[in-house]
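Same chain as my last thread, 467 residues:
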Amino acid sequence: MEFYIDLFKAIDMSKLVKKPVQVHGHNGHIFTRMQWVDPETGKPISEEHHGEGPDPHEHHLKKLDPDNRIMIASRLSLSDRKWANSFANHVSGQENQSHEVITRHIRNNLHKVPVDRLRPHINATRGDLGYGKQPMSAPLSIRSSGKAKGLHPHEVAMRMGEVGPLDLRRLTIGEDIVDEFDYEFRKSTEVMMDPGARRGMRVPYEDHDLRANFRNIFGGTTKQGLEYVFSDPDRDMKAEMIGVSSYVDNRTGSVVHEINFGMYSMDGETRIGDISRSIRREKDGSLHVVNELLEIRKSHHGKGLAENLYARSEQFWRHLSGGNPLSIGITANISVGVYAWATKGFDFQNSSYLYTMQDELEGFCDQNGIDVKDVLKKNGYKNLDEIEHPWEFAALNYTKKYDVTRELDGVEKDERLRDLNTKPVHFGKAFMLLGASSWEGIRYLNQSVGHDDIYNPLEPYKPRESD
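reply #2:
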């Protein structure tokens, strides 16, 4: 009965009764299960609607074309896996099905999905479906890319940032950022117009309207909208935007905006950390983001805060990109970041970081009495040159898990261990935490050759299993 309590929680269950109901399952099989039934009609609540005449919910859904039905089903499936599995089990009578099969079941049974669950996944521009009457924020003004044409609807939805944990309608609720931080924009303009700052620069700064450029990138996102993106109420954290600064990158000639946040407990009493991101859009429409800073106090380590913030922000950057090419740059610092960013699909920005890490792996093995050839062989590599990406180093396994605070005595125990969870870790994580130096990383998205398939922020990272 858990499925019905979750799916129809808005219904007054006190007026319903439990009765055995025959259900048509997969391949024509019929089985009996206990369901909530309206005693007046004798029908399960999943088959009911209120009022006379045709079900308006089903009537509106008939207006959707096949591609929209697939896209909405994909969003529903990815946004709440537990619910999606229960729903597919209900309509098919089978458990533990693949994502593709679950999506197909949802697509074919959209009329059975409650309106409140369905509404957030229908594009707000489709007001003709009859769901546009509820209070809605204005949609972002996003420049859509024609490059998304011809792709599977689910891929289009991913590229447009329509799949993920964010409710995109909340992005435009609240105060205009440009008006809120007018002083910061004026100061940035004054600095750029200063003759001393302009001397030797090839970029005509006076041609850049910082306010207009910011609005062009963020498409009407408000201060509260940005704070919503970088907050995580489930982990007792809310973000407060504390500033924005703008400048022209003389190398590219593009305007760069840096947005800064303080991280606080939900009651506002405790400072948890700091966030800083810089963003620029090139003339070809591509969007480039740099994760300048994410500092989280030790009290909030190990709660999944960083992972959830990354998933929320990646969806946001994809949405701002309008389906255009997107890159996200990071610095994997000497701490848990060296390993964490590798597991999120970030690649080396240039080959020098790759060569350095290959040398460091050899040195790490030598210091700890481990034959690097045995490590490579166990993980399916013929030689060290076949390891080319950070996530491949991170996934290495070898014979056992390691207590990095005790067993790896060949590496000096320095400040990198101060915030480390002391439970045993697999070989690749031990190496990157204790034997690898910081590296510059980049993740390319919304491109034919990119890192979309390396890491899905909606899925947990799993290293290779040891034999």
